[in-house]
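Design request, tokens follow.
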């Protein structure tokens, strides 16, 4: 079966399983709440735009956090589903600098790590993103720097730079030529990268549009930005309500701040002087999107 068919089948299986569990949970509404509100959108910056209240969600991380009660809102204009209220700077420090993130078997088990690496290698091959020898790549929010590792496998002379606000993985990535710890501002603001990647990073950012502007300044002309991130529960529609979100494996509260859309990404790319050249929301059973932006 082609990959698209496998993703569609997995999406229906996951959606059916969530529906089955939902029927046995009388505490969760079966459809979306009817309440709409008007407010400024934090992501498309539109003033007084209609938002749909998807529903309430609880923290999935032990914290402590500034808030214990959150909800998901969907902007009717840019189609972004986002967390309200937004985590504070202290919350973000708790999540990313005061905790261990890379301890489960996905990272410590060699076979599991090789599967992750193979997945990213196949994706960048298929999209033609591997830079030529001696070109540079930047991996943002790198962690274990899977894309840098895949590029080194394909082209050993590629120069790899990884950036992360945490030093947790800095000494564990021999495939990275430079591992810089700090915000994106610690990376020299000069156009030297043929490829930048954010794999499961952009959903953690309070201002993802500002990150695109920062990356554009560091990209060579013709360079590409590769992005993957959680999108929606499988085949979710606004009328489906909150139930499938509560069983969504990518619902991380308050770590995942926004579940972005193709509409938002295209608009944000244009404002950052980039162009959206690839969008695919079918990955992992229609739960994850993959996108490529290019600097003209």
């Amino acid at each position: 079966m082609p990959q698209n068919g496998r993703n569609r089948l997995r999406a229906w299986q996951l959606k059916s399983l969530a529906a089955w569990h939902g029927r046995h949970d009388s505490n969760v509404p079966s459809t979306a709440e009817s309440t709409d509100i008007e407010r400024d959108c934090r992501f498309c910056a539109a003033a007084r735009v209609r938002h749909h209240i998807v529903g309430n969600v609880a923290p999935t991380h032990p914290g402590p956090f500034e808030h214990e009660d959150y909800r998901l809102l969907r902007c009717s204009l840019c189609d972004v589903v986002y967390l309200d209220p937004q985590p504070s700077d202290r919350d973000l420090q708790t999540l990313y600098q005061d905790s261990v993130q890379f301890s489960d078997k996905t990272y410590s088990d060699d076979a599991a790590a090789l599967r992750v690496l193979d997945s990213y290698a196949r994706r960048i091959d298929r999209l033609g993103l591997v830079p030529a020898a001696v070109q540079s790549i930047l991996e943002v929010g790198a962690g274990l720097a899977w894309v840098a590792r895949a590029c080194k496998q394909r082209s050993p002379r590629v120069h790899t730079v990884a950036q992360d606000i945490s030093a947790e993985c800095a000494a564990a990535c021999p495939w990275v030529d430079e591992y810089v710890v700090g915000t994106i501002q610690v990376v020299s603001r000069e156009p030297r990268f043929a490829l930048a990647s954010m794999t499961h990073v952009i959903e953690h950012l309070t201002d993802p549009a500002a990150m695109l502007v920062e990356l554009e300044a560091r990209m060579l002309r013709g360079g590409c930005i590769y992005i993957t991130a959680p999108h929606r529960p499988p085949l979710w529609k606004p009328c489906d309500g909150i139930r499938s979100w509560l069983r969504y494996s990518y619902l991380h509260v308050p770590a995942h701040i926004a579940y972005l859309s193709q509409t938002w990404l295209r608009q944000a790319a244009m404002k950052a002087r980039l162009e959206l050249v690839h969008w695919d929301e079918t990955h992992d059973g229609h739960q994850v999107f993959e996108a490529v932006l290019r600097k003209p």
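Comment from the thread starter after seeing the answer: thanks! Residues 162 and 179 are 5 Å apart (CA to CA).
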